[in-house]
Backbone:
């Protein structure tokens, strides 16, 4: 019983660490998961292609969640390979969880969709709860996971696992990922909560559809709260419509039209780390 699926990474409009309300948009870089199940095996063993020493508990928990609900005690293997850098603020955990949940559904022939045995939102929540169980998230990150599963931009209340808005957008996107890594679970949540009034303002802008303005405010506020320099965001504001620290960093995402982003790219290319030119993505996670 084999299954395969893919899910996109995402960038941040509003970080949920201050109030529990967050917003993110899917981008066109993705993670693929391959699941192989057998009734002769009990254990579930994960492997991450890019880093054989990385923590595989999230993807193993995702397989277990689907087997517990729809299977009959099967075990097996799960392997991810990914273009989304890990722990860089680009939602690698949500993409890995969503791809794994759908790949396991594929392996067990569970139909996913509005008329299926599981809706995409329910499938997404299996991954969110697996992420909570293994401790790789603070709020559950339903904002990031819903953007990755459904595509487009979403606004969610992670304290209630409630989807408050979803819209499709069509932006060019530039991503700069400095070399360091920042695990969400290590983020300074107390400092983020200090800026809750600003986060509520970002929430209003996002629910008004003013996503780029929301990103600009989010970027300045959360860079300061999480101890990242604000200079790259302020410098980028001269060239693009919207720019923000993504998640708990260190990546910065900028959105605008192609010519605006080209100017910014020439500046970011001078810095250490990697620069990715991509676009927003309307298609979310899907079985391959
Ligand atoms: N490609 C992947 N395959 C399997 N698990 C992954 C993958 N990427 C991330 N994870 C899991 O997510 C954790 C990182 O989560 P997090 O710090 O929230 O990063 P991000 O901000 O990129 O989502 C990793 O320790 C790992 O457990
Ligand atoms: O763990 C969490 O609850 C969250 C982590 C952050 O994202 P990253 O995982 O990209 O750092 C943040 O943007 C999100 O709103 C909530």
Residues:
């Amino acid at each position: 019983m084999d299954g395969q699926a893919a899910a996109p990474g995402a960038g941040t409009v509003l970080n949920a660490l201050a109030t529990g309300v967050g917003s993110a948009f899917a981008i066109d870089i993705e993670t693929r998961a391959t699941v192989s199940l057998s009734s002769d095996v009990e254990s579930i063993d994960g492997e991450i292609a890019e880093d054989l020493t990385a923590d595989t508990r999230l993807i193993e928990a995702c397989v277990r969640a689907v087997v517990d609900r729809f299977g009959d005690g099967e075990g097996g293997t799960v392997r991810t390979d990914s273009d989304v850098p890990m722990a860089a603020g680009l939602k690698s955990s949500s993409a890995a969880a969503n791809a794994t949940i759908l790949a396991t559904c594929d392996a067990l022939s569970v139909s996913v969709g509005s008329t299926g045995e599981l809706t995409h939102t329910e499938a997404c929540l299996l991954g969110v709860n697996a992420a909570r169980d293994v401790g790789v998230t603070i709020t559950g990150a339903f904002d990031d996971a819903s953007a990755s599963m459904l595509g487009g931009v979403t606004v969610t209340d992670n304290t209630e696992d409630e989807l408050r808005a979803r819209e499709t957008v069509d932006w060019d996107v530039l991503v700069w990922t400095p070399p360091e890594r920042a695990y969400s679970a290590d983020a300074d949540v107390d400092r983020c909560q200090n800026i809750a009034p600003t986060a509520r303002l970002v929430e209003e802008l996002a629910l008004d559809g003013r996503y780029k303005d929301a990103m600009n405010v989010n970027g300045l506020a959360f860079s300061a709260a999480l101890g990242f320099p604000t200079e790259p965001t302020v410098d980028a504001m001269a060239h693009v419509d919207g720019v923000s620290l993504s998640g708990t960093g260190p990546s910065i995402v900028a959105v605008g039209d192609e010519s605006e982003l080209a100017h910014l790219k020439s500046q970011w290319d001078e810095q250490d780390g990697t620069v990715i030119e991509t676009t927003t993505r309307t298609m979310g996670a899907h079985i391959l």
Summary: The chain has nine helices and eleven strands. The two ends are 14 Å apart (CA to CA). The pocket of adenosine-5'-diphosphate (ligand 1) is lined by residues 31, 48, 54-55, 58-59, 80, 82, 86-94, 96, 136, 183-184, 247 (CB under 6 Å). Residues 175 and 226 are 19 Å apart (CA to CA).
